[in-house]
Structures are given as structure tokens and as C-alpha cells.
């Protein structure tokens, strides 16, 4: 648990999740997809992450979720309609299936350059190191290919 706390705080949040709730995040993911479709993905994602990790908000509660999304700029009426219609449910399920195919079984998870999987929350410098290692590996592969060519 201490590692999770450190990772969350490294991402800029105060570690204070709801003590007795592990939310079902399906509706939050659906509204994040709605937000993506109207150019508000970052705003909604950041608001929901902060609300859950720092404010102990139950993001599974639809009224709470709708209020948080409205605060971040998403039209509440459209959000209610999207949830009622399950407009983005298949998008979320398809993304989940695709994630499982590449070995992702927890969030957050990041696939870098289609070659490296990082599961968990990591500080920014970890990503910089990962990209440096990928670049070094790519340069090595290219150099080896050049020495093998006639």
C-alpha cells in the first residue's frame, strides 16, 4: 500500500481515496470517452482522478460523477443521455479487450512504442528513462542492421 501511495503522490495527487469504497469505474470510463469525443478528455480525466485520489469522492455514484464532469466542462444533459443510452459502453469494453490481449490487467497502464508495457502509476522521470532505453535499443538495432548489410 505504501508503494501505491508514493506512486499516486508522485503523479501530483494527495493520497486520500475513499476508505470503504472501491468504485466500479465503468460509468466514469464511459464519460471519459464522451469527453474525448468533444475535446475534453484531459479535463475530465484530471478532474475524476483528483476527485477520487485526493477528495475521496465515490466516482461510481452517478450523481457525484455527473457533478464532477459538469465542473470540468462536460454538458450534464449530454452526459446523462450518453450513460442512459450506453453510448460509449462498447468503446470501453473494446479497449478493455484490447488491453487484455497485450497483457494489461490493471490501470493505469501504458504501452510505449508498441514494445514496452508499464503497469502502474510512475513519476515523469520513469517515462523519460523508458523512452531513452527504447531509443537506445532502436539505435543498437539499426547499427547492427547496417553492419550486416553488404
Strand content is 5-15%
Number of domains: 2
**What is the element string, with H for helices and E for strands?**
HHHHHHEEH
- The global form is globular
Describe the protein's architecture and organization.
The structure is a single chain. The protein has 150 residues and is mainly alpha-helical. The chain folds into two domains: 96 residues, Glutaredoxin (3-Layer(aba) Sandwich); 49 residues, no CATH class. The chain is 63% helix and 5% strand. The protein contains seven helices and two strands; from the N terminus they run H-H-H-H-H-H-E-E-H. A two-stranded antiparallel sheet has the order 1-2. Helix 2 runs antiparallel to helix 3. The N and C termini lie far apart (55 Å).
Q: What keywords describe this structure?
A:
single chain, 150 residues, mainly alpha, Glutaredoxin, two-stranded antiparallel ribbon, 7 helices, 2 strands
Please describe the topology of this protein.
Blueprint (H helix, E strand, L loop, with lengths): L1 H9 L15 H12 L3 H15 L6 H10 L4 H10 L3 H13 L7 E4 L3 E4 L4 H25 L2
Antiparallel strand pairs: 1-2
Helix pairs in contact: 2-3, 3-4
Quickly describe the structure.
Helices cover 63% and strands 5% of the residues. The protein is mainly alpha-helical.
Amino acid at each position: 500500500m505504501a508503494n501505491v501511495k508514493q506512486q499516486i503522490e508522485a503523479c501530483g495527487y494527495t493520497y486520500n481515496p475513499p476508505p470503504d469504497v472501491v468504485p466500479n469505474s465503468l460509468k466514469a470510463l464511459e464519460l471519459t470517452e464522451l469527453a474525448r469525443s468533444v475535446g475534453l478528455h484531459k479535463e475530465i480525466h484530471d478532474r475524476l482522478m483528483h476527485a477520487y485520489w485526493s477528495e475521496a469522492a465515490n466516482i461510481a455514484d452517478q450523481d457525484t460523477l455527473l457533478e464532477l464532469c459538469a465542473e470540468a466542462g462536460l454538458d450534464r444533459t449530454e452526459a446523462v443521455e450518453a450513460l442512459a443510452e450506453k453510448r460509449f459502453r462498447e468503446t470501453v469494453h473494446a479497449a478493455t479487450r484490447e488491453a487484455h490481449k497485450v497483457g494489461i490487467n490493471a490501470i493505469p497502464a501504458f504501452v510505449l512504442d508498441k514494445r514496452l508495457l508499464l503497469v502502474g502509476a510512475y513519476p515523469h522521470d520513469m517515462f523519460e528513462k523508458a523512452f531513452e532505453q527504447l531509443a537506445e535499443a532502436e539505435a543498437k538495432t539499426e547499427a547492427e542492421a547496417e553492419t550486416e548489410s553488404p
